[in-house]
Write a structure and sequence with these properties.
With about 170 residues, the chain is mainly alpha-helical. It has one domain (about 10-35, about 40-155). Helices cover about 85% and strands about 0% of the residues. It has helices at about 5-25, 25-30, 45-60, 65-100, 110-115, 120-140, 140-165. About 15% of the residues are buried.
């Protein structure tokens, strides 16, 4: 199947974004543990172990050098620190959201107003996430990037197959 160059660029860009999303999910998830609804106490430790496992799998699958691993860890640490500055605001949002969810009748306007008020925080968090993903992706060599894109495409296809059959 032959695609026009602009279409290939769009698909390539989308694929890169997806890959980056999967690569640095760990950096943001670490701080999300404290704000999850009714999260178990040991959830934080489980997430930490899961993140270490993901990093090891990534290093093995892509044959990351020691230098690349150090750079990626530094990127994730920096993103986590930036996320920490917004943690208090997110906790406030979650508390207010829980309060709305526990009312007898759902007030759609109140939730929309709450969500709108925190929109700048959500945008900042998304920006931190995307910048970290971009930075991690750019630590990889061209060959590693291509291999990672293939891995992510395969994972996406597996997920879509499960959705169709599940």
């Amino acid at each position: 199947m032959k695609m026009a160059k602009p279409m290939k660029t769009i698909f390539s860009t989308a694929a890169v974004c997806i890959v980056i999303a999967f690569v640095s999910v760990a950096s943001v998830n670490a701080s999300d543990n404290d704000i999850a609804l009714d999260a178990p106490r040991d959830h934080k430790e489980h997430k930490h172990q899961e993140q270490k496992h993901k990093m090891k799998r990534m290093a093995k699958a892509l044959l990351l050098s020691e230098e690349q691993q150090v750079e990626i860890k530094a990127i994730k640490t920096q993103a986590k620190e930036q996320h920490q500055t917004l943690r208090a605001s997110m906790k406030e949002f979650k508390v207010a959201e829980k309060k709305l969810l526990r009312t007898a009748t759902f007030d759609e306007q109140a939730y929309s107003a709450l969500h709108d008020a925190y929109q700048p925080i959500f945008a900042q968090l998304a920006l931190i996430r995307v910048k970290a993903k971009h930075a991690v992706f750019n630590v990889l060599t061209t060959e590693q990037q291509e291999k990672w894109l293939k891995i992510m495409e395969h994972k996406k296809d597996k997920g879509n197959a499960k959705k169709r059959h599940g």
